[in-house]
Amino acid sequence: MPAGEFCNGSPPPPPGSDDEEEWLWSQIKAEARCDAESEPALASYLYSTILSHSSLERSLAFHLGNKLCSSTLLSTLLYDLFLDIFTKDSSLRSATVADLRAARYRDPACISFSHCLLNYKGFLALQVILFVLFVCGVLVRIINCIPDLKSPRFCSSVDLLQRTVLCCFQAHRVAHNLWTQCRKPLALALQSRISDVFAVDIHPAARIGKGILFDHATGVVVGETAVIGNNVSILHHVTLGGTGKFGGDRHPKIGDGVLIGAAATILGNVKIGEGAKIGAGSVVLIDVPARTTAVGNPARLVGGRQQPTKHEEIPGESMDHTSFIFDWSDYII
Amino acid sequence: MPAGEFCNGSPPPPPGSDDEEEWLWSQIKAEARCDAESEPALASYLYSTILSHSSLERSLAFHLGNKLCSSTLLSTLLYDLFLDIFTKDSSLRSATVADLRAARYRDPACISFSHCLLNYKGFLALQVILFVLFVCGVLVRIINCIPDLKSPRFCSSVDLLQRTVLCCFQAHRVAHNLWTQCRKPLALALQSRISDVFAVDIHPAARIGKGILFDHATGVVVGETAVIGNNVSILHHVTLGGTGKFGGDRHPKIGDGVLIGAAATILGNVKIGEGAKIGAGSVVLIDVPARTTAVGNPARLVGGRQQPTKHEEIPGESMDHTSFIFDWSDYII
Amino acid sequence: MPAGEFCNGSPPPPPGSDDEEEWLWSQIKAEARCDAESEPALASYLYSTILSHSSLERSLAFHLGNKLCSSTLLSTLLYDLFLDIFTKDSSLRSATVADLRAARYRDPACISFSHCLLNYKGFLALQVILFVLFVCGVLVRIINCIPDLKSPRFCSSVDLLQRTVLCCFQAHRVAHNLWTQCRKPLALALQSRISDVFAVDIHPAARIGKGILFDHATGVVVGETAVIGNNVSILHHVTLGGTGKFGGDRHPKIGDGVLIGAAATILGNVKIGEGAKIGAGSVVLIDVPARTTAVGNPARLVGGRQQPTKHEEIPGESMDHTSFIFDWSDYII
Amino acid sequence: MPAGEFCNGSPPPPPGSDDEEEWLWSQIKAEARCDAESEPALASYLYSTILSHSSLERSLAFHLGNKLCSSTLLSTLLYDLFLDIFTKDSSLRSATVADLRAARYRDPACISFSHCLLNYKGFLALQVILFVLFVCGVLVRIINCIPDLKSPRFCSSVDLLQRTVLCCFQAHRVAHNLWTQCRKPLALALQSRISDVFAVDIHPAARIGKGILFDHATGVVVGETAVIGNNVSILHHVTLGGTGKFGGDRHPKIGDGVLIGAAATILGNVKIGEGAKIGAGSVVLIDVPARTTAVGNPARLVGGRQQPTKHEEIPGESMDHTSFIFDWSDYII
Amino acid sequence: MPAGEFCNGSPPPPPGSDDEEEWLWSQIKAEARCDAESEPALASYLYSTILSHSSLERSLAFHLGNKLCSSTLLSTLLYDLFLDIFTKDSSLRSATVADLRAARYRDPACISFSHCLLNYKGFLALQVILFVLFVCGVLVRIINCIPDLKSPRFCSSVDLLQRTVLCCFQAHRVAHNLWTQCRKPLALALQSRISDVFAVDIHPAARIGKGILFDHATGVVVGETAVIGNNVSILHHVTLGGTGKFGGDRHPKIGDGVLIGAAATILGNVKIGEGAKIGAGSVVLIDVPARTTAVGNPARLVGGRQQPTKHEEIPGESMDHTSFIFDWSDYII
Amino acid sequence: MPAGEFCNGSPPPPPGSDDEEEWLWSQIKAEARCDAESEPALASYLYSTILSHSSLERSLAFHLGNKLCSSTLLSTLLYDLFLDIFTKDSSLRSATVADLRAARYRDPACISFSHCLLNYKGFLALQVILFVLFVCGVLVRIINCIPDLKSPRFCSSVDLLQRTVLCCFQAHRVAHNLWTQCRKPLALALQSRISDVFAVDIHPAARIGKGILFDHATGVVVGETAVIGNNVSILHHVTLGGTGKFGGDRHPKIGDGVLIGAAATILGNVKIGEGAKIGAGSVVLIDVPARTTAVGNPARLVGGRQQPTKHEEIPGESMDHTSFIFDWSDYII
User: Fold this and answer.
1) Which of B181, C100, C301, D122 could form a Cys-Cys staple with D217, CB 3.0–4.6 A?
2) How far is C47 from chain D (nearest CA, A)?
3) Helices D20-38 and D90-106 sit at what angle, rounded to 10 degrees?
4) φ, ψ for residue E71, nearest 5 deg
5) What ipTM describes this predicted complex?
6) How far apart are CA B268 and CA E66, in angstroms?
7) Closest Cα of chain D to C36: distance in Å?
8) Domain residue spans in chain A?
């Protein structure tokens, strides 16, 4: 994306820098102003959702309140809830910024930040889940507490997954009591509204990192004890599901930088290593090592179980869904 | 679920007993009262949907009316329709009770009956379909007429599927005229609303048993001549589809106690035997014998076609999605 | 469908003839009048959506405006937009007629034209996309310019796909500037509403032919540079997706008369030849020759890669999803 | 009104006869059907409000629920409340019938019963007040218990007012405890909605007879301890107000057959005798004897205080607002 | 109003000139644009109601549709009705322009044309009544056919009232059949909505001239056979009422240039001469000669019945409500 | 009102004391909780409007946002505007408290503070006007700056009106620029919504004191340059109107403690002295001295112009509307 595309005249600051939020909001307003001028039929919509607001969190709270409201859950009530939390907590806002950046840079069909803010249901659903996590006292964006993971590009030489899982474990201890004690009814009511409005069903106790892209998002299902690391990209119809009728840790753990193709189904408490790639339509019931590719139903590792092919790229960022085909077509004769 | 979890202080009566409906409604109100106190932001919602009503059927009719209404189909009209039928027919109400019980006991993420009543779109969609079946004169919950099938645990030693199919056939003869003569426009309008609001598309002429769990439910498609027995559990994105452009009996017949994993596709007038298990992502185009497991695309029987492995459990109740993996991984090397 | 089923007393004119639109509208009103009489609870709905309108385009604009509106996108605004374009352009209207015919004749569960007009979300989503294409200046229904393709039955002896692709290429050159210059914000806002309301996500820059059936439609995702020929039938959960994080021509090209089964995933800039059939649940990453069948994950050609079995039928019209099973079951043993 | 004007082909039964309600409902449906045919733009409205309902009380409950609902008081809730009571109590329904008849025969601008049912806010507000009275346990339509008052034409030779007031006194004793104990919050919430929606402010503890016409109705204010007899006609902007800041019986008592002209203000616990006439714009602070006329600000009796002119007609039925002008113009020179 | 106040930079054209409508619309858009910039909270509202529209009639139809809609009368239906007529008939549009001018120049609290268009309920109610008159086939703006009356300042030397009444008589002959034959249900439904939403109750058969100001408007009641000439100003709570229970010509006839003060009540088929003034709170039951002043309850002529004081001004334009006080205070001692 | 009536168990603190707001809010919540328990049908309404909020200003902002919203002015936008100002400014909140107290103690039909907060449209309209005044920079509650006027009982021995008017004059100088420069569009849009929803039309530039009771409120009109002192009670249909078509100071000035009866009309820049009483239906065009009573149309002073009867009570607090009748009836014979 050439710098010339930014309407607000200044180049974006480095990801994660202090003034990124401010820059982004000014950029979003510039885009919306430009769109309102070229398309009068949308101007009212753009003013009410973006241009009449004084900050990104007010705009987001307003938009979510109006999207998720129903005749029995009023928009004013939802707006009030969202705004209260988004205003209080700066880490939530920086997570929002990272998710907007993820959609803008990884999805070639995403033409502007304001487009993502208004129209991407994966992005919008995720913000509600983050809100719920925060409200429920779960450690939000669990990996935040590990400083060197904050960089948008994770350090591939370290087994981040281990640390993620460790961290999750600690977070889970903290969260467990909170979750069982507290604001579950609110969390579940919001999950239900997201499922109705966006057809996205993410359990509010799932733990999700930063810089996540849910592309298209329709039909995504993420279970209660699932964990998703940083910079992961997940396509539509993906299931991170459980098994059995009893509680406990029963859903997948997804490492940083993973790419999960459309309609892939991953079931049970399995580990998808950092930088792994799951092909579209795959059914995965076993662990997948870091930086390998699993495809098919049942899923097999490209290159074979013993010596799977390893790739250098970070699939969650490169979004390359089909490069394994050459190996694969060999494999399938 | 330990008895201590029940807010209303008394243990649940045996499934199917006469006072189960009353107990359940008192339990739901106790849960809602408890939630309203701990979460004032939701209290208005809980009062309007549950606590202000005098019975389960009024609460359900109110909730469905408000969920499914649109600017051209008013909530008052839908409420009136639902309430009229739910009040009249006690068999519909006992089916509702069985479905609530199915979700509460089989889905570990389901923390209360009120949570299911308010938020489970699989449950809600199913109640509308039952309403429609009743309105259209189709014999509701077809197996009701066979007394010994009413037990929530089906008798595994009998080939229930045969009787189901037989019964269906008889029901179908009765239903056929009704369906072709009568309230199809209403039935189809409601199907359309369910598809818009819940992304669940169940044809109103499908015949569906008791104690059904549609878990997550997003993307489920059930065709016109499909039959689903008792105590079946079906995950999201499952298709029970037809083939060809001509009418007639062209959709799957699912026996009692079957478990169908996420994103499985079953096409054509095939029989899935009682207690069978269909793996996630499977594509099934042929009959599956009772108590066997079919996985993969195209689906194969675990243990092989000639002597498939048989299991003792009832998968629709145990919800075990992945235990076949040991056999399978042998199979796939 | 016997002629006796038509309420308005006259047989349908030949497809594509000048008076087809008029006949269809009179048929739809006759159906709605009949339904309103037999089902008073729906009469208000049928009058507001169909019977109070003077033409098919007014009825459609009204219905879409009320379906897609939200608290920030008013129904009056949407109605105004749709009506303006539908009234102006007769080619859009004839495309609408062809799509109604496609649903009515190919889907045995479709009992009337009015049922399709009111309740088929695949049909409704498609009309919005066509509206958007027109508004954005993209050559609508691209293959219109090739006269002999207008026939509802395409001439199987010609490699239409080549011409389609050629035509697409030319259209794309024209469209490219328009798309980059113009009404993208409106197009994307409508895409977002379709995705929320119908769970159907079709990029407004995709190019789509006439006589298309999106059956059930839930979960369909069609990417930015995808092309869909005439008389194609696409089931629910189908993905025509891209790969990579960069723009450019990166989505599938679907020839005329193709049938794509439920939950099939086709990725990348691959060509599905005219009259090909893609089995349910298949994952297709490579070209599929005309009139062959691809099934499985990864998808293979029935009959083998070297000499795939060729069929005479047009699967997009016959809707036969499972006939390949005989070959296949041989194949899989 | 010539008999030929009745669409349903049969002449109206005598007022108060048993089959009047049935005849009226059939007449209203006939009128609505006729209007729906001649005005397609209104057909949807007429079907939803009248033609889709099976009885007058359902239609009325539906219409009131939709008129009075707000974002915090749902239409389904109001519909449920109204329907429950209207269905239970036949005396409420016969009062509704008498009020419809009053508007139809006394207001020359009232062209049909359905017009009154749908559009007369005085009529609609009154039905809600009656509902509230019933719900609060106040003896509804207080004079019902005196049989010979039930006739639509009251017997002018009897001082009905005395009996009315006596009866009120008894009713009040019963009502007092109920009013102070019970459903005041509901009553006051409905009063507030009527005041917002219709600009009609009738305290729910006021006691109101049968056959009342509130013509135009805008701005009518009736206080807490006011009593209105049978067959009274009250124009818009009329106040039946109190005085002082303490409770107790402080509002006017209006006898049977009284006519109160537009913008008249009657204050304090004064008695307006049966068959009296209050001129438009009058300010009345003292008792007015039966069958006399009071006009002016301050109001004086036409003919003088000592020997006021007496009329034979029943002004509440003749609706003659200006005949006193001859006497008056003499009076005023 | 100094010319400098006009945002759009050009002075207003002469009243009634051909380009006045165009100038006014450009002025309204300039005002709205200015307001949207200075008050972002209102920008969405101003864009949706004014700035997104291409003409005054579209803006007005949109605004009225959204103001008057209810859950049973959809905004899209009303918008469609209004737009259809406003677009067709240029005389309706020129009447709208004259009414906007009347409010802007006569009411010192009216700060802009856009303020009047959006917020003046007297103006808005009047436009609906004009629409209804047109739809019903009544000769709209009855005096239009007399050319020399079109001037915004009427010629005071002519007894316009005579001609008005004559014209009314002719119009009435034409209208009578139409009114009895045709679109009464629609007319009365709209009257009812105006009464609910604006508390303004104007019978759709009343005949109303051009350049009318209904100031504040709350509580205005105008009866079925009332006639209002050109350039009349009417304050809130004014009643032009009838008498008796029989039909026929029973409401007041108001001449050109009349001013009727707040809460005045005029009853019966009396004539208020051109340029007369009716004091606030007056009750008028007899004819009032041209250019005289009637005050009090009952109303008397200032200066005495025999030789009433005559004024030169046109009260409907000067809006002088209290200048008679000097005469009057003499009169009342 | 005996202390026993207060649900929250503690007696009210002295008016104006620091903890009055806190006490009132706790009292309102206690009342609402009590009502919610006794009337389940209203519980949802009471929770959403009162019980789910953490402060009086949040409850009020929520309630007003939902009352005044329309399809083009969203409730979330209004809520945001109201909450922002109510939270910031404590003087606005103390004015709200004084107005609630005024209604509760002066209107015998007002049974609780929560009843007033939810249902009194006079109270609600007034809060919006105060909000608008604040937003527009006009000195709110103008007399606030004169300390000894803050007492709820004004000191009758001082000519407060003089000081009020002086203060107004100064306030007006400040306000003039602000009003002409700034947020007029917002102010007028809100005035319009109040007029539509409550039928109350108060110009946002009017200046209004503390402890005001607008009883019933329907039809009240207050002009642009009107001033209303402290502890004034105004009944419904009252007009404080202007005269003429030019701007400037042209509306009444109402002193402290005045009572204005129903349907009274006061026109022009006249002064109503402190503690004066205006009879119902009066038309007042001249000054009324302090503590005298004016009645009739045209209004005269009770006791005669030269030596009008003076009363000791404060009519705005005693609410005695009719005690003058003894003098008056002498007067009128």
Assistant:
1) D122
2) 5
3) 60
4) -65, -20
5) 0.81
6) 49
7) 10
8) 18-120+162-180, 206-318
